[in-house]
């Protein structure tokens, strides 16, 4: 019998949930030194801005104020890092392989977003494979299949005042990191899950997802940690690779970002300055 091949672990994008306050989130991330795409509107009812990097990106997502339909589930989560998204080149095959492996996933969902390119409107098309509700307690984890990559990864959107070129890491807080890591060992193979101080790490292409205890998070980031808002498990921090720490520091000063912790190895932006997500910049 032919066995379905499980997908490779590649990072597509990470998501900051702005709930229904996109104007404030977009202003904040521009002041953090990111170049944002024009506001886009999904056929599912949400809106977004993107900060594009070499092969991955940061997404700000929200629903319109006063919305009574559409992506209202975004309002059920606090503001902050809320989505970790793997790449898929074939969403149907990804869904079939994950289902066969016993991973609880929803049927694929296809949607669009108009994009204005060279004065003409075109539709960027996507299909996602999402984990069933309750599979992970710390946010949204899913796969994204891009049908129109040329409408998303465009060079004019990849240049940022803070010098960011890639996402290096996302950090998840979980009381039992070893138990939480079993899902990823099932999806991608146990060889991609490693022991780290305070938890486990999943290797995701050139990036990684760290799953750590809250104590380990606080040891690394101290007062820069996000507000858990009563949650025992949550997505907490992002590490960005920048071409230059000096460039990043200059962009943060220009943007009036307060409380930045600077060293020769990294810059840390407190979560209270980044819509409840701790941001780290490394060279």
Beta-strand content: 35-45%
Radius of gyration: 18 Å
Q: Main sheet: which strands, in order across?
A: 2-3-4-1-5-8-7-6
Order of helices and strands: EHEEEEHEEEEHEEEHEHEEE
Could you say what the CATH architecture of the largest domain is? Roll
Number of helices: 5
The coarse overall form would be globular
Spans of at least 5 consecutive residues whose pLDDT stays below 50 are: none
Estimated helix fraction: 10-25%
Average pLDDT, to the nearest integer?
A: 95
CATH topology of the largest domain: 2,3-Dihydroxybiphenyl 1,2-Dioxygenase, domain 1
Quote the distance from N terminus to C terminus. Answer: 47 Å
| Structural class label | alpha+beta
Number of self-contained structural domains: 2
What is the assembly state of the chains in this entry? single chain
CATH superfamily of the largest domain: 2,3-Dihydroxybiphenyl 1,2-Dioxygenase, domain 1
What's the total count of β strands? 16
